[in-house]
Amino acid sequence: MAQKQNSFEGQADGVTITAANSGAGSGDAWDVVNLDGSTVEGDTALAAHGLVSARLATGGTAGSPYLSWTSGVSATAVYSRAYIRTGSVPGSNLNLMRFLVGTTIVGTVRLNSSGKLAFLYSSGSLGGTSAADFPLSQWFRVEMDEVVSTTAGSMTVRCYFGNPDDTTATETLSISGVSTGSNGPVDRFRAGIISSAANTELSFDGVAWSDAGPIGPVAGLAAATPAPVVSTAALVRAATW
Fold first, then answer.
1. How far is residue 191's CA from residue 194's CA, in Å, rounded to a whole number?
2. What percent of the chain is modeled with pLDDT above 70?
3. How far apart are CA 41 and CA 38, in angstroms?
4. Average pLDDT for the chain
5. What is the pLDDT of residues 22-44, one digit of tens each?
6. Residue 129 burial (C-beta neighbours within 10 Å; 0-12, 13-18, 19+)
7. Is 235 helix (H, G, I), strand (E, B) or coil?
8. Distance from the first to the final alpha carbon of the chain
9. Which of 39, 40, 9 is nearest to 27 (CA)?
10. Backbone dihedral region for residue 102 (phi beyond 0: left; psi -120 to 50: alpha; all else: beta)
11. What's the superkingdom here (predicted)?
12. What is the pLDDT of residue 34?
């Protein structure tokens, strides 16, 4: 059994994440950080847990910045998790998480331009779409599981749109008895702005990939809490005491 995970806690604010600097303090280093002329950096302004997340952003020129593991897990049944935050609904469907067998795409999670989350099996067959909208400007968790087979494949996607650390999913999407386009094994996982897109920004935290079973919420790091807000009036009153 094998599992990889990365908390981004070892990343410095505003510093580009690379395969070389992505391990120490964060967990398992990424094998590939695809910049594609875009931004992939540590961010201390937003975090689902701990103090740091990864900020991925494109400018006016479309790009596809993403993080990828290409080693360490290789199985026909695989599991993944990511905490995701976006401030807006994408203008076009945006792929976020992906399983591959070599270069063959076998499973994908995406944000739709309708405000829903959807998943695709094989290279692009729609497996299901959430009834609820994904939340904006707050963290949510997505878990994607897949068993690859050209005759009896299956995928399950669990959406945690309320409390991102909940153990009960807001929605569970699934399909079974389908061809995923390959018999495996799945040996690559990507997270990020996998579709080429312009003027797009996403945050990722607590990313994991495993062959050991559903991963669940992050353990061992406290959920980030907003700094307390102190009103001007309170400061004035305090100054007169």
1. 7
2. 91
3. 10
4. 93
5. 998 999 999 999 999 999 999 99
6. middle
7. helix
8. 62
9. 9
10. left
11. Bacteria
12. 98
Look-up: residue for tokens 């945690």?
160
Answer whether residue 133 shows pLDDT above 60: yes
Note whether 106 and 150 are within 8 A (CB).
Answer: no
The number of residues in the chain equals: 241
- Answering whether pTM is above 0.85, one says yes
3-class DSSP state of 234: helix
Full domain range(s) for residue 153: 3-239
Q: CATH number of the domain that 67 lies in?
A: 2.60.120.200
Domain count, the chain: 1
Helix (H) or strand (E) holding 237, with range, is helix 232-239
pLDDT of res. 223: 67
Which amino acid belongs to residue 12?
Answer: A
Distance CA 186, CA 209 (A): 11
How far apart (Å, rounded) are the C-alpha atoms in residues 48 and 43? Answer: 11
What is the model's pLDDT at position 220? 66
